[in-house]
Amino acid sequence: MAKGTRCMAVLLFLGVAARAVSTVTDGLLPNGNFEERPGKSQLNGTIVTGRYSIPRWEISGFVEYIGSGQKQGEMMLPVPEGACAVRLGNDATIRQKISVTRRTEYSITFSAARTCAQAEKLNVSVIYDSGLLPIQTVYTTSGWDSYAWAFRAKHTVVWLTIHNPGAEEDPACGPLIDSVAIKTLNRPRHTKSNMLRNGDFEEGPYVFPGSTWGVLVPPMAEDDFSPLPGWMIMSDTKVVKYVDAPHHRVPQGARAVELVAGRECALLQEVATVPGRSYRMTFYVGDAADGCVASMVVQAYAARASQQVQYESQGVGGFKRGQLDFVAVGNLTRVVLQSMNHHMKPDGTLCGPVVDDVSLVSVRRRSARRLSNGL
What we know:
CATH architecture of the largest domain: Sandwich
Number of helices: 1
Structural class: mainly beta
Number of domains: 2
Largest sheet: 7 strands, mixed
CATH topology of the largest domain: Jelly Rolls
Radius of gyration: 22 Å
Number of strands: 30
CATH superfamily of the largest domain: Galactose-binding domain-like
């Protein structure tokens, strides 16, 4: 497992500025992968010299333009997508102004990697909506991870700002940034057949085509907007991983969540209930067919009830159905899913059980007892 002491913070600044506004659709921002290059006269070696040298972006501070395979000393600087990325040195910023729809929720997905600094921090900012994205663990062997963060637009223009507040002795030891994308989030509603919103996880952050490592969804305060509508991720520093069917084994549909942080992170949703009424939660537990061989245990909690579901993973895909019956004790009930153990793939990266198709229904007490007994 690759570890570091870095912490990455993500904020968003909403506002109006003088530069041209990019009209965006779901996917990469204009030049979001930095493949449109600065002119040779706007580079001093790798250092970008002009404020508007990188097409579609505005920069300030020590910003470098990095090509795939470029070296820093003996260290190779990989690029996850395409041929180029940017590196943000001390107090460096890149930003882009985009047009959005008021009162609409959006998710930003971006890729980042640590280079030679050991305590890097990154601010991705938008005013009015802000959140902290602490990142202390690398989840891929390449060192690149993709992260998601969500906001609700209060204006029709958003300044998306990515800033490195670091002050390293070597200004060229900042983080690499690549593949910045946006996605409009819908707000799934509960239905008669499922009291949970987005129980199948089909609504979530943008996943880059061809990306095999999924998207990390960070912990968030209860009043934050979630890249996984309906769900909260509760932890101090750890994340869950959003995975897709083209690159992982998913029990149902096209998306699921991999619990990669053990007991240090919980996936939960709060739902309206009637005290004294009986409820049943069902869900799939499986593996993502990513080589994670382990005896996995997912624990489900609701009201005063809990249930462990054990799944023996061979790392090649598969799943089983879990169930939790409980009696509500309040008008609001939190349903929680949590992996009970840490797991690691042979390459040293963290992995865990996949959960999917989480459903909650109200049941008559007699029916609940009969179903529990298999009648």
